[in-house]
Specification:
This protein is mainly alpha-helical. It is built from 13 helices and no strands.
């Protein structure tokens, strides 16, 4: 039984890891941009070691270099705004905002991939806006700022997801990820230097912070990415993408047990959360039905 559903179990373990990245935004006591800087350095190093271990070539088509650099900056912007959102408010709010990524993809894909615009997906987007309004109905100024950072993070995630889909038609995913991480290191280093944050006091961490950062960079980023490639090969892209919609559910549950966030969030938050999560899942089911219809 376990062998039969081995890849399904791995998939949900990976999603749980991704859900845990939001919790780490609270457990690691460093500035958000410093967390992301360490994350990209650790993840890129681990991925480069994987390339050496497998004897994979580091060569990369130069004609796609500018695209990868641009997307790498988007990835860095996504992670920085995501952790700022969490540090300003809660892990639950940060991951809930991030769950709107798939709805951004619905209007981005027709522009980038030249596919037909869907009015039903547009309606899903309106429902998500209603859910966000419900969640934010009694927010303080700081919580509203957290919401804006979280929604911007989701927008960046949608942009790099769609553009990576285009680049992946010509370049192997592992190469795209490695060079986007390297771009992220350079971009974030420039931001840190320009803001005066690349200093010993800012980079100083506790042993606990260091261990959590290793877990974030190696397990939740590099390992999760490489494992996801194998899972997609076995289960298919749709099964994976639909299951990923459970990430906010996992994060909110983890936040309740680990961070006790249920004491900070009111009923409106959970009602709005349920609206958003149900819409995101409904959107995935609709796409599955649409794909089957097109294939028949």
């Amino acid at each position: 039984m376990v062998q039969k559903y081995r890849y399904h179990l791995w998939l949900h373990l990976i999603i749980l890891m991704w859900g845990f990245t939001g919790i780490l935004g609270k457990l690691i006591h460093l500035d958000a941009i410093i967390i992301v800087w360490y994350r990209v350095i650790i993840a890129a190093t681990f991925l480069a070691l994987y390339f050496l271990w497998k004897g994979k070539s580091f060569s990369f088509p130069k004609k796609h270099a500018w695209k990868v650099i641009l997307v790498g900056i988007m990835v860095a912007g996504h992670w920085m705004s995501f952790y700022y959102s969490i540090q300003l408010s809660t892990a639950s709010l940060g991951i809930l905002c991030l769950s709107t990524t798939t709805l951004h993809v619905t209007w981005l894909e027709p522009l980038v991939m030249k596919r037909k615009f869907s009015w039903l997906e547009f309606l899903f987007g309106i429902c998500v806006i209603f859910g966000i309004y419900f969640v934010a109905s009694d927010f303080s100024a700081q919580e509203r700022n957290a919401l804006y950072f979280g929604l911007f993070s989701a927008l960046m995630a949608a942009f790099f997801s769609v553009f990576n889909g285009r680049i992946a038609q010509d370049v192997e995913s592992a190469h795209i990820t490695l060079y986007e991480l390297i771009t992220g290191i350079i971009f974030i280093s420039i931001v840190l230097l320009s803001t005066g944050k690349l200093t010993v006091p800012m980079l100083k961490m506790t042993i606990s912070d260091g261990l959590w950062l290793l877990f974030l960079g190696v397990i939740c980023t590099s390992f999760a990415f490489l494992m996801t490639i194998e899972i997609v090969k076995k289960l298919g892209a749709f099964t994976v993408s639909l299951s990923i919609n459970l990430e906010p559910v996992y994060t909110i549950i983890l936040a309740i047990f680990i961070l006790k966030e249920h004491k900070l969030l009111n009923l409106n938050f959970y009602i709005g959360s349920m609206v958003i999560i149900l819409v995101v899942i409904a959107n995935g089911i609709y796409k599955n039905w649409l794909n089957k219809k097109l294939q028949s």
